[in-house]
Amino acid sequence: MTEPTRLPAGIALGGAVMVGVLTAAQSRINGQLGLRLGDGFLAAVISFGSGLIVLVALVAAMPSGRRGFGRLRDGVRRRTIPWWMLAGGAAGALTVATQGLAVAVIGVSLFTVGVVAGQTVCGLVLDRAGYGPGGAVAVTIPRIVGGALALLAVGISLQGGVLDRVPWWMLLLPFAAGIGIAWQQATNGRLRQRVGTPLVATLVNFLGGTLILAVAALIHVLMVGMPGVLPSEPWLYLGGVIGVSYIVMSAALVVHTGVLLFGLGAVAGQLITAFVLDALWPSDAGPQWQVGAVMILVAGAGVVVAATPWRRRFPRRRGIGRT
Question: Is-contact 284 34, C-beta < 8 A?
Fold first, then answer.
């Protein structure tokens, strides 16, 4: 059996950065769609629903997708796949709904920093508890420092009168979304182990998320009514396709980069793109660009510190050989 062709490190890392770019772009698109519709829940349904259609087509067309779906069906029928492994879509629904409700107001930078902080803190807890597919991971000093830096970035983001312009619940949404993303990633990892392909695990997430968001959107529409006219710009409806694209890219590229390098590249792309988008396309109540630059640098430093495998180095002493 021949080994798969390995991508050059530079190309693979560039792809990881592109995943982060697409993630930030999706946040802005979903946020703008929610603003134009006047309904963040309906915007989230459109985003998730379009992604679900793409995923159904991919799973049906690819042999690995059909085999994975068969394993999923058998696992649910025999109860070897517990119900909570199918619940990752709830976190995805929270994330996309939060994008539609908050990004157009607070900006991509503030949203991204809140998500990174929530992911880092929740990731520490889940790793320590051994919830992820890799089992328990020790809570080291660098990981604690990284989490503290992520929280410090959130504190920096609140400078400049942000609290006077934005309701407090809108600032909590990105942090809650980050917690959900960390839990979703760990849950998806365990589901992927059972079904053998990330495509089917992603399909389960999009299916569950679409159902949850459809119910929420229906309730909201019954309370406030349907929006008058749907926006005509095609790019406002690309959020779901972009989401599927970067999920598939992630599954393909992490083999060539490793989890650590891929994570650092993706976060770098996400933070830089968030800053550029807010600079070129300011939000209604986001922080000033100077504050945004500082909070992104601090959040990025927290990710690097938390993810880098630090090792203690002892100076060699003369006269002492290796054991």
Answer: no
| Cα–Cα nearest to 122, from 46, 51, 177 | 177
Give the closest residue to 178 by CA, choosing from 94, 248, 299. 94
Q: What is the pLDDT of residues 107-122, one digit of tens each?
A: 777 788 788 778 777 8
Residue 28 near residue 275, CB atoms below 8 Å: no
Per-residue pLDDT tens for 180-237? Answer: 877 887 787 788 778 888 888 888 888 988 999 899 889 888 888 887 778 888 899 9
Which amino acid appears at position 191 of this protein?
Answer: L
Domain range summary for the chain, segments of one domain joined by + = 15-227+235-307
133-139 contact pairs (CB < 8 A, 24+) = 133/186, 133/189, 133/190, 133/192, 133/193, 134/189
Q: Average model confidence (pLDDT) for the chain?
A: 78
User: For the residues of 94-139, what is the DSSP string, one character each?
Assistant: HHHHHIIIIIHHH-HHHHHHHHHHHHHHHHHHHHHHT-STT-----
What is the tens place of the pLDDT at every residue in 61-103? 999 889 999 999 999 998 888 888 888 888 888 888 888 788 7
Contact 260, 70 (CB under 8 A): no
pTM (2 decimals)?
A: 0.73
Sequence-distant (6+) residues with CB within 8 A of 72 are 81, 194, 195, 200, 204
CA–CA dist 222, 226 (Å, integer): 8
Q: How far apart are CA 53 and CA 59, in angstroms?
A: 10
* Separation of alpha carbons 323 and 314, rounded Å: 14
